[in-house]
Design goal:
It is built from 9 helices and 19 strands. With 387 residues, the protein is an alpha+beta fold.
Length: 387
């Protein structure tokens, strides 16, 4: 935990304090930002208060008094619920505007981790609870120079594996047959060879299955891949080392020659993706603030203009970090209106899609934001892959 940096940011945002709270590991953000071990038994509530100025304060239960020992600050203890309320009220007495992992109307579920009852309790003390969203972006979603290096290393490996996977599909189709699950297993073995790890298996989806954005093949449910089939590969992985961050892409191709409809839908999605890229790069180069919902609007407007808006059924993109769906701003004006600001050294996907009954197209790239600029970190698909 970088206490000085957190306090400086609190003052910058004109907040009195940042209050962390957990019970049964419900807030993984707190553990990561504070640098707490995540293997402790946590059966009682704890609170940790970082004020904009002055020393932090801890509040822990008497039967679990050591949980916050690695953090600076005076420790208070409680047993009875009345004592918890009294101690918490005293700890918060000097502060009014307090940030927590709270999202108004739960618009950002990744951030809405504090329960409604706790928010009600603190409001009964006369406190104004505000979202810690921009604080979380700064201290949880922004990458170090070392993490950026792991991302580019993962990008090089995953891009190579993706192209090889298309080649393997073609080889298998023309030498006896292939199916989705077998190719998924092939990709996972390639990850092991490259010392990559992932949270879930990659998506290999054929024809109508590619129209399901979160389809997953299995040994019991796997479509064959044949000549003329449309194939979607959604592949994400990171290096197998501490604090490494993910790279996450989606490419599409056709075994043989694509139809006119394949081509048309791919080009609409590609152009929408590029509209999102331009929106990010032009705003940052002009020194303008940019929120996630604005990037979503750029891609969605492009697909709407082409007449396929009803088939674009998910947000444009997500934050990327040590987990594939990170805790920074999502590129979302559909499922939520993500108003969090995009800041330097954060990364996110841009992945518009059109999902028809017979097939679906998604084109996904990753964007890394720098100060006043942004770049796509891997290869960009410009045409359907001819497998």
């Amino acid at each position: 935990m970088n206490l000085a940096a957190i306090q400086a940011e609190l003052r910058q945002q004109k907040l009195d304090a940042w209050l962390f709270y957990d019970h049964h590991h419900r807030d993984p953000i707190a553990y990561h930002v504070l640098g707490l071990p995540d293997n402790q038994m946590v059966t009682r509530r704890w609170f940790y208060l970082i004020p904009a100025q002055g020393d932090p304060s801890k509040l822990v239960h008497r039967i679990e008094p050591r949980h916050l020992d690695t953090l600076p600050g005076e420790s208070r203890q409680y047993s009875a619920w009345q004592e918890l309320w009294d101690e918490l009220k005293q700890m918060l007495a000097p502060h009014t505007h307090i940030a927590m992992q709270y999202s108004p109307n739960n618009l950002v579920p990744y951030l809405g981790l504090v329960d409604a009852g706790t928010v009600e309790l603190l409001r009964s003390f006369g406190k104004e609870i505000v979202s810690s969203g921009d604080l979380v972006s700064q201290f949880e979603a922004a990458w170090s120079a070392e993490q950026i290096q792991t991302h580019f290393a993962a990008a090089e490996a995953v891009d190579t594996i993706t192209q090889a996977a298309f080649q393997e599909i073609g080889r298998r189709v023309r030498s006896g047959g292939a199916n989705e699950f077998e190719l998924q297993e092939w990709i996972l073995e390639a990850f092991r060879r490259k010392r990559l790890v992932t949270e879930d298996a990659p998506i290999v989806a054929v024809n109508a299955n590619s129209g399901n954005p979160h389809y997953q093949p299995s040994s019991a449910r796997s479509a064959p891949i044949r000549e003329g089939d449309f194939v979607l590969l959604d592949i994400w992985a990171k290096q197998d080392q501490p604090d490494a961050v993910f790279y996450d892409i989606t490419w599409t191709g056709v075994v043989g020659e694509p139809t006119a409809l394949h081509q048309k839908i791919f080009h609409i999605v590609r152009d929408a993706r590029d509209a999102g890229i331009r929106a990010v790069q032009s705003a940052l180069s002009a020194g303008q603030k940019l929120a996630g919902w604005q990037v979503d609007k750029a891609t969605r407007d492009s697909i709407d203009a082409a007449g396929y808006g009803q088939y674009f059924t998910h947000r444009t993109g997500h934050s990327i970090g040590v987990t594939v769906h990170g805790n920074g701003p999502n590129m979302d004006g559909l499922e939520t209106k993500d108003e969090r600001q995009i800041i330097p050294n954060t990364c996110f996907s841009i992945e518009p899609g059109i999902y028809l009954p017979e097939f679906g197209v998604r084109s996904e790239i990753n964007m890394l934001v720098r100060s006043g600029a942004a770049e796509v970190t891997g290869k960009i698909q410009e045409e359907l892959v001819r497998i």
